Amino acid sequence: MTNTRERELTSGVRIPLVGFGTFLIPNDQAASAVENALAAGYRHVDTAEVYENELGVGEGLRRGMQREGLERSDVFITTKLWPLTQERNKTGAETVRSLDESLERLGLDQVDLYLIHATFGREQRLEQWQALAEAYKSGKARAIGVSNFNTAHIDELIEAGLPVPHADQIELHPWSQKPQLVSYLNQKGITPIAYSSLAPLSTWRTAPGHPSGKTQEMRAEGEHSDSPFKKLAEKYGVTEAQFLLGWGVQNGYPVLPKSTNPDRMRENLDVFSFRIDDADLEDIRGMDRGAGLAWGEVDPTTHG
């Protein structure tokens, strides 16, 4: 548990516990969204090659940092390698080229965290991870990690004599807590980064690649007036979104809420003014439903 606003990765880099997620923000809206996020107080921005908005994110970073008088070191920036190209796995050389292209789109010499976005093909996965290790050594990334990897995927990297990832970005919220995976990550010194933190909300997005039946069922549950998160939010005097994000940061997970509404941006950032008590945390542990919505546990075929 932690009540600080940052978590230190094993690379020594400190990652803010609330980041601004940009998944599903179109490139032509990303600049204004990121600029507004920095104005709201965010100092952690998350994007990815496959989001196709790195150009806009980069423009928003430049505008927002200038507007707020920020130095590059004031903002933590994550992007991710999409491991496929033309329906095949990228080679190590193509991985390096992808990072260089992401840096160019973002207008940066270095990202704070570079992740392999998904798990496709063991041999290529090892080759791609080796390329990320070289990017870390060269200074193009201050930390490296993976996303949507399970214990077996990470074990294969370690067994191949490759570096242990600094982070694993995975779907984490009260209905998908992944206790065994989180325990493993913490034992290995790998920071779990949470996405889809707001999945239990009735207003949570429905996007291509999300199992629609399960998503609709969960959304319908969230609409009930006696939804547990409505009651818990009322108890702590916060919104449901703030409660769910607060649950994540209280567990030490960096979270990545997304909004293009400046008021909602500020609201999502304000999650450090309350602390969930032990009894409620125990009750929430009993709400776990296993695998999440965005990816399967072992072989993801969509992205999020």
Topology overview:
Layout: E1 6-8, E2 14-16, E3 20-21, H1 27-40, E4 44-46, H2 54-68, E5 76-81, E6 84-85, E7 88-89, H3 92-106, E8 113-116, H4 122-138, E9 144-147, H5 151-159, E10 167-171, H6 179-188, E11 191-195, H7 212-223, H8 228-236, H9 240-250, H10 262-269, H11 278-285
Helix pairs in contact: 1-2, 1-10, 2-3, 3-4, 8-9
CATH fold type of the domain at 6-198 and 250-262? TIM Barrel
CATH top level of the domain at 6-198 and 250-262 is Alpha Beta
Biggest sheet layout: 7 strands, parallel
The global form is: globular
Low-confidence stretches: 207-213, 297-304
Overall helicity: 40-55%
Q: What is the strand tally? A: 11
Residue share in β-strands: 5-15%
- Mean pLDDT across the residues is 90
User: Would you list the SSEs in sequence order as H and E?
Assistant: EEEHEHEEEHEHEHEHEHHHHH
CATH-level-2 architecture of the domain at 6-198 and 250-262: Alpha-Beta Barrel
What do you see in this structure?
The protein contains 11 helices and 11 strands. By secondary structure, it is of the alpha/beta class. The protein has a domain at 6-198 and 250-262: Alpha-Beta Barrel (TIM Barrel). α5 links the parallel β9 and β10 (167-171). α1 runs parallel beside α2 and α3 (92-106) crosses α4. The longest helix has 17 residues, at 122-138. The relative contact order is 0.14. The model is unreliable at 207-213 and 297-304 (pLDDT under 50).
